[in-house]
């Protein structure tokens, strides 16, 4: 029967008697695990930030009435040329309105779907911003501001003002940061907007919106949905776009196909809309995890080399232990316990150092006009990274200790003592 108290006592004595080698072995684990935590936390945090910039503002399914040429032209109805090769030049799109027919019943049906988190309306209008002698072309978007906040984290992109200020003001506008800068406008100022028909409407600036994409911030502003309907002279059921947010993003593709077939509308799913971005995200994640795993493997080999040398330095101790009655199995357990103790101490220190430096990175200032609401570097504190780190520390040190311990188990004490 194994006396674990004696095994632990001898293991502790061995470790403390060669404190320098023990410290080096523990530091190998510490820096390996600490570096892994820092790298994976920062890289996945950065990837999450980049994903959020696109995914937070992109609907899972975007529904609209696309203007496109008729699939069947009048010549197709002329039976005499049915079998002939026909060429049509200057095909014109068929006359359809931009609005979605029966938009309100469609949104009501979508919102009753258990897979749908929310389906909200949007209305786009081409306008001109007018301030004194300055006139800029742009786009005015009518939204349900509180629903945009709930579903798409809209408030993160409001650098001045608040969503509630727009909700409470029918003549309010969240003006694009680029427009405000070009026209020297601030919160509380009034800006005139002109429709393509030449109608003028004064709107009070209640906030400034900045997406981080200059081509959007230079033209786009937001108002309440009914404000755009009033500006365009349209009824309350006039809606050009419906944005759908789902509980499960994987449902976006089948839902978009079903909507196109059932309602004869154009429905673009998020995977199609952001195919290139998703490819970039996959590659970044692959690189992050590949580098992290490589780092852990390199740390594991370093631990193995240190423990292997530690055992060779203790040949005399192994001979004495066996000469005094310890079996080869006892010797093996002694060195395995030493490796596990090094793994525990080094792993815990690695987690502490990794977390501490992650917190330090998270507090460093990171300010850029492209990301107005981000003030510090992004860090992901996912608990699973720490579980993986300490697990790898235990497994790698066990294996690093087990392989040399098997050699120690087979050592003949007579040959070592005779050699001395």
List the helices and strands and how they pair.
Blueprint (H helix, E strand, L loop, with lengths): L3 H14 L1 H37 L5 E4 L38 H9 L4 E16 L2 E10 L1 H8 L5 E4 L1 H5 L4 E5 H6 L7 E6 L4 E10 L4 H4 L2 E5 H8 L8 E6 L5 H12 L2 E4 H4 L1 H39 L1 H9 L4 H36 L19 H27 L3 H7 L1
Care to describe what's here?
The protein has 420 residues and is of the alpha+beta class. The chain has two domains: 4-55 and 278-419, no CATH class; 61-270, no CATH class. Helix content is 54%, strand content 17%. The chain is built from 15 helices and ten strands. It has helices at 4-17, 19-55, 103-111, 145-152, 163-167, 177-182, 214-217, 225-232, 252-263, 270-273, 275-313, 315-323, 328-363, 383-409, 413-419, and strands spanning 61-64, 116-131, 134-143, 158-161, 172-176, 190-195, 200-209, 220-224, 241-246, 266-269. Strands 1, 2, 3, 4, 5, 6, 7, 8, 9 and 10 form a ten-stranded mixed beta sheet that branches. Helix 2 (19-55) packs antiparallel against helix 11 (275-313), helix 11 (275-313) runs parallel beside helix 14 and helix 13 runs antiparallel to helix 14. The longest helix is centred in the last third of the chain and has 39 residues, at 275-313. It is elongated, with a radius of gyration of 34 Å. The two termini are 32 Å apart. The model has no long low-confidence stretch (mean pLDDT 81).
């Amino acid at each position: 029967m194994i006396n674990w108290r004696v095994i632990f006592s001898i293991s502790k004595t061995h470790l403390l008697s060669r404190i320098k080698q023990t410290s080096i072995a523990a530091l190998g684990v510490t820096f390996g695990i600490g570096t892994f935590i820092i790298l994976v936390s920062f890289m996945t945090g950065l990837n999450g930030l980049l994903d959020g910039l696109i995914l937070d503002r992109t609907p899972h399914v975007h529904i609209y009435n696309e203007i496109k040429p008729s699939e069947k032209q009048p010549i197709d109805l002329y039976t005499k040329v049915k079998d002939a090769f026909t060429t049509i030049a200057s095909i014109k799109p068929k006359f359809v309105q931009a609005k979605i027919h029966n938009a309100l019943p469609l949104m009501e049906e979508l919102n009753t779907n258990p897979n749908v988190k929310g389906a909200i309306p949007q209305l786009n209008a081409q306008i001109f911003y007018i301030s004194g002698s300055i006139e800029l072309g742009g786009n005015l978007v009518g939204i349900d501001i509180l629903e945009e906040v709930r579903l798409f984290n809209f408030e993160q992109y409001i650098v001045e003002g608040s969503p509630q200020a727009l909700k409470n003001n029918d003549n309010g506008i969240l003006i694009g940061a680029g427009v405000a800068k070009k026209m020297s406008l601030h919160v509380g100022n009034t800006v005139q907007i002109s429709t393509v028909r030449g109608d003028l409407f004064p709107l009070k600036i209640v906030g400034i919106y900045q997406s981080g994409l200059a081509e959007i911030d230079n033209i786009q502003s937001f108002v309440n949905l009914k404000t755009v309907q009033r500006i365009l002279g349209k009824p309350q059921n006039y809606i050009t776009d419906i944005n759908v947010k789902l509980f499960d993003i994987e449902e976006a593709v089948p839902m978009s196909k079903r909507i196109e077939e059932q309602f004869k509308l154009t429905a673009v799913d998020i995977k199609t809309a952001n195919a290139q971005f998703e490819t970039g995200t996959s590659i970044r994640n692959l690189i992050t995890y590949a580098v992290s795993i490589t780092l852990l493997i390199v740390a594991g080999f370093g631990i193995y080399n240190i423990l292997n040398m530690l055992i060779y330095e203790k040949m005399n101790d192994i001979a004495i232990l066996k000469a005094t009655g310890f079996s080869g199995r006892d010797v093996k357990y002694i060195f395995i316990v030493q490796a596990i103790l090094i793994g525990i101490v080094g792993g815990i220190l690695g987690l502490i150092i990794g977390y501490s430096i992650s917190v330090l990175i998270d507090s460093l200032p990171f300010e850029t006009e492209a990301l107005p609401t981000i003030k510090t570097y992004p860090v992901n504190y996912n608990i699973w990274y720490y579980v993986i780190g300490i697990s790898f520390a235990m497994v790698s040190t066990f294996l690093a200790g087990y392989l040399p311990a098997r050699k120690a188990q087979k050592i003949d004490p007579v040959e070592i003592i005779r050699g001395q």
